[in-house]
Amino acid sequence: MTDSLLKLSTEQVAVNVIHKSVGQITESDVLLASASDAIIVGFQVRPSLNARKLAEREQVDIRLYSIIYDAIEQVKEAMEGMLSPEIEEKIVCNIEIRETFKITKVGTVAGCMVLDGKITRNTKSGLSAMESLFIPVNFLL
Questions:
Q1: Which own/partner contact pairs does 34-41 have at CB distance under 8 Å and 24+ positions apart?
Q2: By C-alpha distance, which of 25, 18, 85 is closest to 49?
Q3: pLDDT per residue rounded down to tens, the chain (141 residues)
Q4: Which residues pair with 71 in a beta bridge?
Q5: How far apart are CA 63 and CA 41, in angstroms?
Q6: Could you give phi then psi for residue 29, rounded to 5 degrees?
Q7: CA quadruple 94, 98, 104, 105: dihedral, nearest 10
Q8: Are 11 and 79 in contact (CB under 8 A)?
Q9: Residues 6+ apart with CB under 8 A from 98
Q10: Do the bridges between strand 133-137 and strand 125-130 make them parallel or antiparallel, or are there none, so unpaired?
């Protein structure tokens, strides 16, 4: 199984096998995965009760498989997800720029009024003046 997983490596995403062994998944396996920011892939095994509790506390993902092809396929799908994240653009509000102010050491600040919708402090946003022009902006509320 290790060889099959290592063959999935590409130029952009690499699969690293940190540790492999036989037998039950133990607490030391979970600690190693936690320290390495890795997941545990188990084939035809189960974690001990203490290892399962530790994995929940340390937020380590344990994936268990009984069919080797399922394990390889899921790792491959996870790698493909790393290559091309899906970005969804959603219009949350429409604003009208009422006046702009030039502030030294800061730049240009716009006084705006929300026409519809809602804007929050952490909203990632942009200014669209024309269909082909999009400018990323930060909002200070």
A1: 34/58, 34/59, 34/60, 39/63, 41/1, 41/5, 41/65, 41/71, 41/75
A2: 25
A3: 777 777 877 777 777 888 888 888 899 999 999 998 888 888 888 888 888 889 889 998 888 887 888 888 887 877 777 644 455 556 777 788 888 889 898 888 888 888 888 888 777 776 665 444 556 666 666
A4: none
A5: 5
A6: -65, -40
A7: -10
A8: no
A9: 110, 111, 112, 113
A10: antiparallel
The per-residue pLDDT for 47 is 83
AA letter at 7: K
Q: To which H or E segment does residue 71 belong?
A: helix 68-83
Q: Which stretch of DSSP H or E encloses residue 137?
A: strand 133-137
Q: Which residue has the tokens 């189960």?
A: 46
Q: Strand 40-43 relative to strand 62-65: parallel, antiparallel, unpaired?
A: parallel
Token duo for residue 77? 């799908």
Ramachandran quadrant class, 97 (left: phi over 0; alpha: psi -120 to 50; beta: rest): beta
Q: What are phi and psi of 104, to 5 degrees?
A: -65, 145
